[in-house]
Amino acid sequence: MYESSCYTFYPGSPRWPGRRIRYAFSRNVEEHVKQPLEHALQRWASVSPSKFYRVKKFAQADIWISFLRGYHGDEFPFDGANGHVAHAFGTPDGRVHFDSAQNWSISKRDNDGLDMETLGFMSLGIPLGSSTLKSKRG
Description:
The protein has 138 residues and is α/β, with parallel strands linked by helices. The chain is built from two helices and nine strands; from the N terminus they run ββαββββββαβ. The strands form three sheets. The chain has a five-stranded mixed β-sheet, with helices on one face. Strands 1-9 form a two-stranded antiparallel sheet. A two-stranded parallel sheet has the order 7-8. Helix 1 (31-46) packs across helix 2.
């Protein structure tokens, strides 16, 4: 488990106005893929004062989680398998995009792909104000 001291934050430490942060998944995200991302949010809740609540509609969410391919409307198109895997936008934008062309490892027993929970944890930190994950050796 990472501690909050492992992170640096954006200049000015932008934060959500409240501690209740709502998130939503795009319609194309299957239920079994949502579980490791929700575990990642639980990990963030354990090191922050925020509480996360899943909502069904994007319009009600602060954080929007999507799986997309190629050019998808922002300035960071995905480049396919084994390329750029995810990107996110800081507070208050809240978009988190994962490349659906990647081979994602969804469960702890599946070691053939990219670990969805770990990469989700890192990517979901961006809209929460975390700019980088510092290496903690010891």
